[in-house]
Structure formats: C-alpha cells, structure tokens
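User: Can you help me understand a structure? I only have the sequence.
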Amino acid sequence: MSPLPALRLAAGAELATLAILLTNLATAHWPQVSSAIGPIHGCAYLFVIVLTVRLSRVRRTRATAVVPGIGGLLVLRQLARPGKD
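Assistant: Let's start by predicting it. Here is the structure, written out as tokens:
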C-alpha cells in the first residue's frame, strides 16, 4: 500500500477512535472500551506521524501531523494543495 492511501486510512481511524474514546469518557466510561480502543488510537496516531514524515519534507506539514485527532486530516489537506509539497 502506498503512503497516501495509508495516511487516509490512519487519519480516519485516528479521528474515529478518538471520538469513541471521548464518547465513552462522557457517558458510561467503561474501562473495557478504553483498553480496547486506546491502543488502536495510539497506533493510528503514530502511523499518521510516520507516514507524514515519509510523504513530506516540509517542516510545517510534519508539525501538523503531531496534532492529536485531526492532525492527519489537516496533513491530507495540506498535501492536496498543488505545489506545496
């Protein structure tokens, strides 16, 4: 799988898992949900950072990847701009 589709998948997974974790925190706060979804969110977050480093040499784009939750989506937006990366 090439890095750009993998980044799309990881960014979506990061956002979705964060939404699940925050919803669980605001409602039932079941420890099982946190222990199951937390590592998936962490892996997706790390994948976003690693894939961004592989795709872009621009320091600003790389720094954007570190933003939790929406960093991957912001990186995809920056990479879609013509002539920026």
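Now, to help you interpret it: The first helix runs from residue 3 to 26. Helices lie at 3-26, 31-55, 59-64, 71-80. Let me know which part you'd like to focus on.
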